[in-house]
Here is the input.
Amino acid sequence: MEERRGCTRVTNIMTDFSKWIEDLELHDPEQFGGKYTWFRGSYHRSVARLDRFLYSMEWEECFKNIKQSILPRTVSDHSPVLLERGNWEHRQSYFKFENWWLKVDGFKELVQGWWSGFVVEGCPDYRLSNKLKMLKQKLKEWSKQTFNERTRRKNSLLEELSELDKIQEERELFEDEVLIRATILVELEVLAKQEEASWR
Here is the structure.
C-alpha cells in the first residue's frame, strides 16, 4: 500500500503479485532516487511505484553490487529505472569523426580556422599528413571539452528535474514550477538529439 499515494486497502491483484514474487523467490533490490515511478495527469494527483527490477537469487550470485535507481522523467509518465552492477572499465577508444560535431554551431568555421593556422614546412604529402595529425589532436581536445560541458549541462538539468519530481511526490507543482519543468524538457530534447547523433 505504501507504493501508491492514498492507497487504503490491499486489492486482489496486489495480493497475487506479492504471492507471485514470494513463490518465485525473487529479490526486489533497494531503490534510490525517489519513491514512485509513475505519475498520472497534469498535476500528478495519482502516483505509484509500478516499475522495478526483480531477479532470482541465482542471478544475484552471478552479479554483485546491484543497485536500482529512479531516473528523472523527461517525456513519459513513467520514470526510467536504471539497474547497475559493480564497476565498468572504460577502454581507450580509437579516433573517429563524430556526427554530433556537425550539429555544434560554428564547428566548420572552427575547423577551418585551425587548418589555416597550422604551419608546416616540407613537401605537399608531408604537410598534409602533419596537418591531419594536428587537426586530429585539436578535434580530440575540443570534442572532450564540448562533450564534458554537454554532459555537465545534461546532469544539471536532470538534477533539477529530479528535484521537481520529488516535490511532485509531496504536492502539486506551482505554475512557475510547471513552466520551469517544461523549459528543462525542451533543452533536454535538444541534448538528446545531439546524443542520438553521437550514438549513431
